[in-house]
Every structure is written in structure tokens, then in C-alpha cells.
Amino acid sequence: MAADPHNLPNPGLDSAIRQLLDQQADIQARLAALLPTKYGPNVKLELNMLRHKLRGLQAYSEVHRLSSNVPIISELEEARSLQYRCECIETAFLEQGFDLSDPRMADALKRSLYDEAPAGYAAWLDRNLTSYDPV
Questions:
Q1: How many other CB atoms are found less than 10 A from the CB of residue 111?
Q2: What's the rounded Cα separation, in Å, for the pair 24 and 27?
Q3: For residue 133, how many other CB atoms are within 10 A of its CB?
Q4: Which of 18, 91, 96, 99 has the fewest CB atoms within 10 Å, i.e. is most exposed?
Q5: Taking the complete model, does pTM exceed 0.85, yes or no?
Q6: How far apart are CA 133 and CA 119, in angstroms?
Q7: Rounded Cα distance, 37 and 132, in Å
């Protein structure tokens, strides 16, 4: 049986991903320094306003039956947003004393919504947890 070319490790790709993650961290640090300049000293207020705006837009789009047609403008930004939300949930688990490196956690993630998981999810999750997103 031939090996699946999508599951073979690619050292060049790993290096490129790590470089992009480093660049992302640098950009986030720069943004953190700029936010107080743009929004003044109250970033929390701005976040609350943006959260409310998002809820309002979501509700309004549902009223007009647009919520299922909202395009993804940037897949990279969507991936970053999804990763951030995952990290927030992981942080909540850590704060409650969960050991996210416990193999039972990965098994639970593999079993959760099993019927809806994309093909290859279990192998992707293993790679993601060990190589790219060690908790």
C-alpha cells in the first residue's frame, strides 16, 4: 500500500510554518504596543464594543437570512481566529487543573463529534498537538 503523500512530514514546510508563527508573534507584539495609541488606554472598552457589534451583526444577518452566506474573506485570518479560540478554551481547562497532555484529552477530542469530523482528523490532531500546538 502506497503512503499517503498528504501525511508525510515535510521539513521545509515545518520550517516555513515555524517562521510564520514567529512572524505572527512579532506582529502581535507590535499590535499590542500600538493598540493603546489607537484606542487610548481603554482597550477593554474597545473589545466590549467590538463584541457587541459582532453580536449585533450576527443577529441582523440572521434576520435577513444572510448568516449562512457570510463569506470567509481570508482563510489565514479565519485559521488564526479559530486557533485563538482553541487556545482560549485550552486556557480555561488549564486554569481548572486539567492536564491537556493527558492522552485521554486527545482521545476525547477524537471521539467528540466523531461523525462530523473531516477525514484524517485523528492523525491531524495527533500531529497538531505534538508538533504545532503543544499545550
A1: 10
A2: 5
A3: 13
A4: 96
A5: no
A6: 20
A7: 32
Q: How many residues does the chain have?
A: 135
Chain position carrying cell 467528540: 112
What's the CA gap between 55 and 115, in Å, rounded?
Answer: 29
Dist. CA 27–CA 89, nearest whole Å: 23
Choose among 133, 121, 132: nearest CA to 7.
121
Q: Are 83 and 90 in contact (CB under 8 A)?
A: no
Per-residue pLDDT at 7 exceeds 60: no
pLDDT (tens digit per residue) in 83-132? 999 999 999 999 999 998 889 999 999 999 999 999 999 999 998 888 77
Cell numbers placing 126: 495527533
For cell 449585533, the residue is 56
Q: Which residue carries 503543544 as its cell?
A: 134
Q: Is the dihedral of CA 111, 114, 119, 125 positive or negative?
A: negative
Exposure b/e, 44-58, CB count within 10 A at least 16 = b: eeeeeeeeeeeeeee
